[in-house]
Amino acid sequence: MAFTAKTKEFKSKAGNEYTFQNVPNSKQAEIIDNGTGLHGKVLNSNMMPQMLEHVVVVPNGLTMDDFDTWEELEEVTTEAFNFLRTGQ
Questions:
Q1: Phi-psi map region of 11: left, alpha, beta (phi>0 left; psi -120 to 50 alpha)
Q2: Which helix (H) or strand (E) holds 82?
Q3: Is residue 51 within 8 Å of residue 83, measured between CB atoms?
Q4: Which pTM does this prediction carry?
Q5: Do the bridges between strand 56-58 and strand 7-11 make them parallel or antiparallel, or are there none, so unpaired?
Q6: Residues of the chain whose pLDDT is less than 50?
Q7: SS3 label, residue 50
Q8: Residue 53: φ, ψ to 5°
Q9: Residue 81, class by beta-carbon neighbours within 10 Å (0-12 exposed, 13-18 middle, 19+ buried)?
């Protein structure tokens, strides 16, 4: 079976719209390895940029500092991570 990318539209509580796209399993493993600490604890300063670079495809090129609030940054990157892991 070949990898086929899936996408998901997401609207934040602030009303901003995003599109998520999953990645191949090998890239997902790399993202999770880079974004977690020794005991699997998510490291925000590593994981959030990875979600914005590899999973959030619209708008493209977002950084952590593009968000007005931590709340929206956390909401979007958490939802992106959930999509990455489950495809839903």
A1: beta
A2: helix 70-86
A3: no
A4: 0.93
A5: unpaired
A6: none
A7: helix
A8: -80, -40
A9: buried
Q: Please tell me the predicted confidence (pLDDT) of residue 1.
A: 80
Instruction: Give the 3-state secondary structure percentages of the chain, helix then strand then coil, rounded to 5.
Output: 50, 15, 35
Domain ranges of the chain: 7-86
Name which of 25, 7, 8, 39 is nearest 85 in CA terms: 25
Residue written as token pair 């958490």: 78
d(CA 25, CA 40): 18
Tokens describing residue 46: 């590593």
Question: Over the stretch 7-28, which tens digit does the pLDDT of each residue have?
Answer: 999 999 999 999 999 999 999 9
Task: Check: CB of residue 57 under 8 Å from CB of residue 7.
Answer: yes
